[in-house]
Amino acid sequence: IPRVIEDAIKLLGLLEERYLWVDAICIVQDDDEARHDQIQSMASIFANATVTIIAMQGADANYGLRGLRDISEPRNYVQDVFKFEKGSSVITTKQQDEDQSPWSQRGWTLQEQIFARRQLVFIADKIKWECACGSFLED
């Protein structure tokens, strides 16, 4: 099982959720008719999910969901701190361009972005929450 799925299973425990839909496992891959029918239902699946976990970071599924204490690999959160006189400082972080991630290069991910009502996005060693009420980025 790829690390991202292992991490997502453990994350379900924190969220007190019971079920996990993983497209690569839940969609029948060797039956064209069944696969077509299930792909046609993906908008509904995303829309009715409690939360959609989006692993935007990493080259492949073995990268995992970084930064979940006691669950996954630690983050590599890069910050530059510029200190000034009298204790003031400015902290900057490097942003990963979402358009450059492998996730954004895949066609079906557009459905995740459009139809998922609540998203927990793992990107640039940060976690972002998106829902109808707003978007919150951990930084």
UniProtKB/TrEMBL annotation:
Top-rank taxon of the source lineage equals Eukaryota
Which intervals hold domain Heterokaryon incompatibility? 1-112
- Quote the InterPro entries the UniProt record gives: HET
Its name, as the record gives it, is Heterokaryon incompatibility
